[in-house]
Design brief:
With 126 residues, the chain is of the alpha+beta class. The protein is built from 3 helices and 3 strands; from the N terminus they run H-E-E-H-E-H. The protein has one domain.
Length: 126
């Protein structure tokens, strides 16, 4: 009877540890997805007809980007550069997929590693 209670207590502690780790992982996934849902700077290069030629989700336009742009479209002086705030909504599909796939992946990886370690241990005992 004592061993059964001890096993039950160990399983209960393990369940609490695993569930709290999974909850922490879910909170991290949600916070990363939530941080992506806000206004972010966006550089837009517009021609004289107000057609968007180039759009980048960056704060600055590096020298290399200017070189590539001028190689493809011509001198940057012929275009108007606008820095705008672009609003991104909450990435629900990405969050939903990550919320299910990441914990399952972690559990399967831990199970595989434990199985490998058990086989290594059993082969050493023989």
């Amino acid at each position: 009877m004592q061993t059964r209670q001890r096993l039950y207590s160990n399983k209960k502690q393990l369940l609490i540890i695993v569930s709290s780790c999974m909850l922490l992982i879910e909170i991290i996934i949600f916070s990363v997805a939530f941080s992506k849902a806000n206004e972010q700077p966006c550089i837009r290069i517009v021609d004289k007809n107000n057609d968007i030629i180039y759009e980048s989700q960056a704060r600055t336009f590096s020298v290399f980007n200017i070189y590539l742009f001028e190689k493809k479209y011509g001198p940057l002086d012929n275009y108007r550069v606008n820095i705008e705030q672009k609003n991104f909504s909450f990435p629900f599909r990405a969050w939903f997929c990550a919320a299910f796939c990441v914990p399952i992946f972690i559990v399967l990886m831990i199970a595989m590693i434990l199985k490998i370690l058990m086989k290594i241990r059993n082969s050493r005992e023989k």
